[in-house]
Amino acid sequence: MIIFPALISPSLLCVNVGSLFKTRCMMCGHEAANYKSPICAALEGRGAPDPDTHDAQIPVEQLPRCEQRGCNGLLRPAVVWFGETLDADILSFAEKALDSCDLCLVVGTSSVVYPAAMFAPQVAARGVPVAEFNMENTPATERFKFHFHGPCGTTLTPALARHESELN
Ligand SMILES: [Zn+2]
Protein backbone atom coordinates (compact mmCIF):
# COMPACT_ATOMS: atom_id res chain seq x y z
CA MET A 1 0.00 0.00 0.00
CA ILE A 2 1.45 3.29 -1.08
CA ILE A 3 0.27 6.22 0.95
CA PHE A 4 2.36 9.09 -0.32
CA PRO A 5 4.23 9.55 -3.53
CA ALA A 6 6.27 12.64 -4.26
CA LEU A 7 8.43 13.39 -7.23
CA ILE A 8 12.00 14.02 -6.32
CA SER A 9 14.46 14.59 -9.05
CA PRO A 10 14.55 12.22 -10.79
CA SER A 11 13.20 9.43 -8.59
CA LEU A 12 9.90 8.64 -7.00
CA LEU A 13 9.45 8.39 -3.26
CA CYS A 14 6.91 5.93 -1.93
CA VAL A 15 6.28 5.43 1.76
CA ASN A 16 5.02 1.92 2.06
CA VAL A 17 2.86 0.97 5.01
CA GLY A 18 2.98 -2.73 4.28
CA SER A 19 1.07 -5.31 2.33
CA LEU A 20 -2.08 -7.28 3.04
CA PHE A 21 -0.44 -10.06 1.06
CA LYS A 22 2.27 -10.49 3.68
CA THR A 23 2.02 -11.79 7.21
CA ARG A 24 4.18 -10.92 10.22
CA CYS A 25 4.62 -13.23 13.17
CA MET A 26 3.78 -11.49 16.43
CA MET A 27 6.27 -13.73 18.24
CA CYS A 28 9.41 -13.90 16.07
CA GLY A 29 8.68 -11.10 13.59
CA HIS A 30 9.14 -13.31 10.51
CA GLU A 31 7.42 -11.88 7.44
CA ALA A 32 6.25 -13.97 4.52
CA ALA A 33 4.15 -13.56 1.39
CA ASN A 34 0.69 -15.00 1.83
CA TYR A 35 -1.96 -15.08 -0.85
CA LYS A 36 -4.25 -17.65 0.81
CA SER A 37 -7.90 -16.69 0.90
CA PRO A 38 -9.08 -17.29 3.51
CA ILE A 39 -5.80 -17.25 5.36
CA CYS A 40 -7.03 -20.14 7.56
CA ALA A 41 -10.09 -22.42 7.59
CA ALA A 42 -11.68 -20.64 10.58
CA LEU A 43 -11.92 -17.42 8.55
CA GLU A 44 -13.88 -19.02 5.70
CA GLY A 45 -16.90 -16.79 5.03
CA ARG A 46 -15.89 -14.36 7.78
CA GLY A 47 -14.45 -10.89 7.78
CA ALA A 48 -16.97 -9.06 5.63
CA PRO A 49 -16.05 -5.37 5.34
CA ASP A 50 -19.29 -4.36 7.05
CA PRO A 51 -19.01 -2.26 10.22
CA ASP A 52 -22.24 -3.83 11.50
CA THR A 53 -20.89 -7.37 11.25
CA HIS A 54 -20.83 -9.11 14.61
CA ASP A 55 -17.62 -10.41 16.16
CA ALA A 56 -16.88 -13.77 14.53
CA GLN A 57 -15.63 -15.07 17.91
CA ILE A 58 -13.06 -17.37 16.37
CA PRO A 59 -11.13 -19.27 19.05
CA VAL A 60 -7.51 -18.06 19.27
CA GLU A 61 -6.18 -21.56 18.66
CA GLN A 62 -7.86 -21.54 15.22
CA LEU A 63 -6.21 -18.31 14.05
CA PRO A 64 -3.30 -18.42 11.58
CA ARG A 65 0.06 -19.37 13.07
CA CYS A 66 3.71 -18.89 12.19
CA GLU A 67 5.24 -21.85 10.42
CA GLN A 68 8.82 -21.05 11.41
CA ARG A 69 10.38 -23.99 13.20
CA GLY A 70 9.46 -24.01 16.89
CA CYS A 71 7.61 -20.67 16.82
CA ASN A 72 3.82 -21.09 16.38
CA GLY A 73 3.24 -17.37 17.09
CA LEU A 74 0.08 -15.63 15.91
CA LEU A 75 0.22 -14.09 12.45
CA ARG A 76 -1.02 -10.60 11.61
CA PRO A 77 -1.02 -8.61 8.38
CA ALA A 78 2.38 -7.04 7.72
CA VAL A 79 0.97 -3.53 7.67
CA VAL A 80 1.22 -0.48 9.90
CA TRP A 81 -1.94 -0.34 12.00
CA PHE A 82 -3.46 2.68 13.67
CA GLY A 83 -1.39 3.62 16.67
CA GLU A 84 1.79 2.06 15.30
CA THR A 85 4.66 4.14 13.97
CA LEU A 86 6.38 4.08 10.62
CA ASP A 87 9.99 3.01 10.52
CA ALA A 88 12.26 5.88 11.64
CA ASP A 89 14.48 5.53 8.55
CA ILE A 90 11.45 5.87 6.27
CA LEU A 91 10.27 8.96 8.14
CA SER A 92 13.73 10.51 7.97
CA PHE A 93 13.96 9.85 4.24
CA ALA A 94 10.44 11.24 3.73
CA GLU A 95 11.33 14.42 5.62
CA LYS A 96 14.33 15.05 3.39
CA ALA A 97 12.24 14.47 0.25
CA LEU A 98 9.45 16.70 1.53
CA ASP A 99 11.93 19.50 2.16
CA SER A 100 13.41 19.33 -1.33
CA CYS A 101 10.62 18.27 -3.71
CA ASP A 102 9.20 20.71 -6.25
CA LEU A 103 5.93 18.86 -6.89
CA CYS A 104 3.86 16.57 -4.69
CA LEU A 105 1.17 14.14 -5.83
CA VAL A 106 -1.20 12.79 -3.19
CA VAL A 107 -2.96 9.78 -4.64
CA GLY A 108 -5.87 7.94 -3.09
CA THR A 109 -5.43 8.83 0.55
CA SER A 110 -7.94 10.23 3.00
CA SER A 111 -5.34 12.62 4.45
CA VAL A 112 -6.55 11.85 7.95
CA VAL A 113 -3.98 9.32 9.17
CA TYR A 114 -0.82 10.81 10.66
CA PRO A 115 2.05 11.14 10.10
CA ALA A 116 1.31 10.79 6.35
CA ALA A 117 -1.55 13.29 6.60
CA MET A 118 0.91 16.06 7.42
CA PHE A 119 3.30 15.35 4.53
CA ALA A 120 1.49 17.10 1.67
CA PRO A 121 0.25 20.09 3.72
CA GLN A 122 3.87 20.54 4.87
CA VAL A 123 4.95 20.70 1.21
CA ALA A 124 2.09 23.05 0.30
CA ALA A 125 3.10 25.38 3.14
CA ARG A 126 6.46 25.85 1.34
CA GLY A 127 4.54 27.12 -1.72
CA VAL A 128 5.18 23.93 -3.68
CA PRO A 129 2.33 22.75 -5.95
CA VAL A 130 0.46 19.78 -4.53
CA ALA A 131 -2.02 17.79 -6.63
CA GLU A 132 -4.50 15.60 -4.81
CA PHE A 133 -6.17 12.69 -6.62
CA ASN A 134 -9.12 11.34 -4.70
CA MET A 135 -12.72 10.18 -4.90
CA GLU A 136 -13.74 12.90 -2.48
CA ASN A 137 -12.47 16.06 -0.88
CA THR A 138 -10.30 15.53 2.17
CA PRO A 139 -9.58 17.72 5.20
CA ALA A 140 -6.46 18.90 3.34
CA THR A 141 -8.00 19.60 -0.09
CA GLU A 142 -8.31 23.34 0.46
CA ARG A 143 -4.58 23.57 1.17
CA PHE A 144 -3.59 22.15 -2.21
CA LYS A 145 -3.26 23.92 -5.53
CA PHE A 146 -4.91 21.09 -7.51
CA HIS A 147 -7.60 18.53 -6.81
CA PHE A 148 -8.52 15.83 -9.34
CA HIS A 149 -11.88 14.44 -8.34
CA GLY A 150 -12.66 10.81 -9.21
CA PRO A 151 -11.04 7.39 -9.34
CA CYS A 152 -7.27 7.86 -9.57
CA GLY A 153 -7.18 5.16 -12.26
CA THR A 154 -9.15 7.60 -14.39
CA THR A 155 -7.69 10.95 -13.31
CA LEU A 156 -4.01 10.21 -12.80
CA THR A 157 -3.08 9.05 -16.31
CA PRO A 158 -4.36 12.10 -18.22
CA ALA A 159 -2.98 14.45 -15.57
CA LEU A 160 0.48 12.98 -16.00
CA ALA A 161 0.31 12.70 -19.79
CA ARG A 162 2.56 14.90 -21.88
CA HIS A 163 0.81 18.17 -22.63
CA GLU A 164 0.52 19.30 -26.24
CA SER A 165 2.63 22.37 -25.42
CA GLU A 166 5.56 20.16 -24.36
CA LEU A 167 8.28 19.30 -26.84
CA ASN A 168 8.45 15.73 -28.04
ZN1 LIG B 1 7.16 -16.81 14.32
Automatic annotation (TrEMBL):
Name the record gives this protein: NAD-dependent protein deacylase sirtuin-5, mitochondrial
Entry binding sites for Zn(2+): C25, C28, C66, C71
Keyword annotations: Metal-binding, NAD, Transferase, Zinc
Residue ranges occupied by any Deacetylase sirtuin-type domain in the UniProt entry: 1-166
PROSITE patterns registered for this protein in UniProt: SIRTUIN
Pfam families per UniProt: SIR2
Top-rank taxon, per record: Eukaryota
